[in-house]
Amino acid sequence: MIILGINVYHGDASAVLLRDGELVAAVEEERFRRVKHWAGFPREAIRACLDMAGVAPAAIDHIAISRDPRANLLRKAVFAVRNRQSLGLVTDRVKNAGRVQVLAKTVSEELGVRSEEIKAKMHWVEHHPAHLVSAFFASPFEEAAVCAIDGFGDFVSSSMAIGRGHALEVLDQVYFPHSLGLMYLAITQFLGFPKYGDEYKVMGLGPYGKPDDVDTLRRLIHLKPGGQFELDLSCFRHHSEGVTMTWDDGEPTMGAVYTPKLEQLLGPARKSEEPLTPRHESIAASLQIVFEEAAFHILNALYEKTQLPRLCLAGGCAMNSVTNGKIRERTPFQEVYIQPAAGDNGTALGAALYVQHHLLSQPRRFVMEHGYWGPEFSDDEIGKVLGVRGEELRKYGCRMHTMEDEEELCRWTAERMTEGKIVGWFQGRMEWGARALGNRSILADPRRHDMREILNTKIKFREKFRPFAPSVLEESLHDYFVGAVPDPFMMHVYPVRPDKRDVIPAVTHVDGSGRLQTINRDTNALYWQLLKAFEKLTGVPVLLNTSFNENEPIVHKPEEALDCFLRTDMDVLVMGKWVVEKGRS
Length: 585
Description:
Layout: E1 2-7, E2 14-19, E3 22-28, H1 30-33, H2 43-53, E4 62-65, H3 73-82, H4 87-101, H5 103-111, E5 121-124, H6 127-136, E6 143-153, E7 156-164, E8 167-175, H7 180-190, H8 199-205, H9 214-218, E9 221-223, E10 229-231, E11 245-246, E12 253-254, H10 260-266, H11 278-306, E13 310-314, H12 321-324, H13 327-330, E14 335-337, H14 347-359, H15 379-388, H16 390-395, E15 398-402, H17 406-418, E16 423-426, E17 440-444, H18 451-459, E18 469-473, H19 477-480, E19 492-495, E20 513-519, H20 525-538, E21 542-547, H21 558-567, E22 572-575, E23 578-582
Helix pairs in contact: 6-14, 7-11, 17-20
């Protein structure tokens, strides 16, 4: 049985494909369109999934869409009647929902096949159940508490549930217009980060500030019994005036969600071109504290409802890795599972798994233990690209050769990093989710105090306050981090051991923490071997790992990796068995 899951006409459009309950392929549309968070119909992602699975569109049995225009209709109607000034907002939602309902025709048109060739049954899966399922049914747990926290989807912002076997029961929800994700978005915009998905920048900025504005920001949200909460709606415009949003074939955009009342509380909003000041750092630090208070309020209530020691977490707010690293400390939960595409991209997976298990009652067979579900390229394909670009490479003073032996390749690459070289590492199947996990990564020596500044100013061309992540051998995890557990998806921040902070300064944030990724030999043997080679040379089983891109989506094809390599100050490019090096005789 073939199930295609899609997140459509929303940010982070994506597609996944299941065969008999096993995930075969998963990829975001942005990787093909080269526009971050691309919104619209994920045509190229669907085609890639079909190619990776080796199936034609006619072979699809079910298509699962992570939207349900019919969900919460009564609540939507009551809200519209009570808030007539927001009828434009409701009209926009209805227009978007209309496109979702005619997807059968759109699928055939976009894939270039006759409509009668698409025999699949269509399923509309509500947004938040898709989030919940994406976490639980991909987890190793037979029974768990499940939570989704985000902006909004199908009129819901937070959900609490319990998962058992192949069934999910929603216990409680928080509805529009109250949203923890929207509160974080409002402060993100206030701090001068206007692009869709910029919240992670505020998370990185927070550790630089003193949390002097906690009491002020607490006024934005009122915590209520049972994990419920309400926003001070006078500071937000989404429920009354509405917010301009675009979800059409390109970068999603969103207008300001806060009102002048927020500026009365916090002072003038920062313009994006203005310098960051200690005042802005304080607001970011305070926001993280207030966000965590609310998140743990929800999670502790969920534990009280379920009394289960295991938690599965999803939604855009599950990308807050700082909060995630504190869950076992601040709640009774003992084990936490968060799959790498916890945001809206992951709802495509959730919709497909919902159909497989919840609707069709099929037993669970799949556990997501790694994030490598995208396309890959053979050494021959890589060699052809390098051959076509050979003259250009020579103009850049590059030389290239192949290394047939993986051990030699890893040793050679590790040696380059010990010399201070920055390496573009392009191997195997592309990652699913927002993080580079060692297959489309830029790698460097974490021992160098100057490496973070070099990367930010010469390679990534991004804000200097943003940290870089450590990849660490799983067997060495406790030697370098405090209270950490294995995490192959880079979804948790933990303290670096005080005696190791000067050992790996390039991946130690200003507050002494690191957003780690543990590397297991069974799930990525080549990357594990590279870390072992670096450890053998230096005694340090850690590498600096950042996404292979430069203000763009993570590179997908060899051509894109080569372009990024040549236009930045990267020193070495390793693609498959091929090695390209600048300025070395």
